[in-house]
Amino acid sequence: MSVLSILLVSVVLLISAYRYYGRFITSRLGIDNRNITPAHTNKDGIDFVPSNRFIVLGHHFASIAGAGPIVGPVIAIYFGWVPALIWILVGGIFFGAVHDITAMTASLRHDGKSIGEIIQSHIGLRGKRLFLIFALATLMLVIAVFLDIVSRTFVSVPEAATSSLLFILLALLFGFAIKRSPLPFWLITTTGIILMYLMVWLGSKFPVEISYNGWLYLLVVYIFLAAVTPVPILLQPRDFLNSFLLYGMILFGFAGVLISNPVIEMDYTVHFHVDSLGFLFPVLFVTVACGAISGFHSLVASGTTSKQIDREEDVKLIGFGGMLIETFLAVLAVMSVAIISRGDFIRRLDEVGPVTLFSEGLGRFISSIGIPPELAISFVALAVSAFALTTLDTCTRLARFFIQEYTEDLPAYSIRPIFQNRYSATIIVVLLSSSLLLSGQFAQLWPIFGSANQLLAALALLAVTVWLSNNSKYPLFTFLPMIFMFLATLTSLLLFAWNQYLMDNLFLSLFSLVLFLLAVVLVYMARNRLKKIKSEQTKE
To answer: pTM (2 decimals)?
Structure first.
């Protein structure tokens, strides 16, 4: 079978899903432009900024993408490329896209607040606090890990460091031009994209070499500044321009497949158990995250993105459409690896890791359009690594939001002003995250991040299901994915806890059980609320 046939079928499925299923979901959500968005009602020029939908799409896509839809799908090929591909397409359409758009819409209807606020409104304050603690801990872990990853990447690939620094400067100029220049938006955007690709080339010519600790300290300062800077100055323009790196990577790869028409070399066998990972269920469904469904998306959708949406109808493009673009990237990741045999896949994955393996496969596609193979592979690797920085400062801003939301109910005469101030709240986030990195504890917690992230998705679906039920809607389109995700994540956590217990790692075993119990408590609270809603509706 050819790679081209798989990609064409995927494109048709995703476009059809956007047009028809996306229309169904938006109608069930009651999307209406007459509803004024929080970007207008709470406009402050810092976090709440009504913006062009394509700029917001760029921010949202850049924040949720990066290495996520690449690493997970490539590792999942251990179970076979066929089950990985099927789950990516089914999950992306019926799970991930629904998860993202409903979380985004729920935030719009709750004053731009996070999923935690939605839980408080429809389940209770205790539920909100449990969720925010869980989400904040997850974000701290991500920030610590990405501080390490980006620092190591900049040391090993100094060309990426130069390009990233130049991107930041370009973003500042682009944001100023969008706001102040009389030139049309399309001309400014085209110029910005050309300059961005020029900076990729400049990075390869003038690498910046700094030590690991040097980059770590610089990144700590950067994420603080990025998290407190008004979004139109840096976050929006940088993410919007950076998204064109991924768009370009996808388009160049697809063009290369059209020209070369590569054939799938890997066999069609489905492996229901892999020694290094475990059983296909539940491991496949917590390994493939961003390409199918990811709880991190709900934090972005209800965190930074919902505060920038100009009109309600924009959620279809940004939430539903943004997820489907990422799904196609995950499909492309699977196909870039399926062109080699299973034996070569296992050997190369152990040698170079999933990102490099993906870069080699997609670089091979791109080289078919006349670009030297070495340059094509370097471009793909650079595009992926650039988004680690985007994820890093987006997580910092989100963590600041959660600290502010968690403490907003404290008495005014207490320490609440410290946590409500965006500067001091961000300092707390940066200090805790960098301390976690320096302590080395994040390395112990990282193995269960996949399960925790997918559990976050299940909890977000739980919140929107209760919200929709409270508004006299019957949301099977969120209820059924929620049930499946709870089954997959809770099973995964129990298996992980048992395996860690057998390995005498009591810390990880207990931590997994704590996450399991947290989810069970929230489910119990939501169940009681749903029973009450049903009882009230029956009386009416």
So the answer is: 0.89
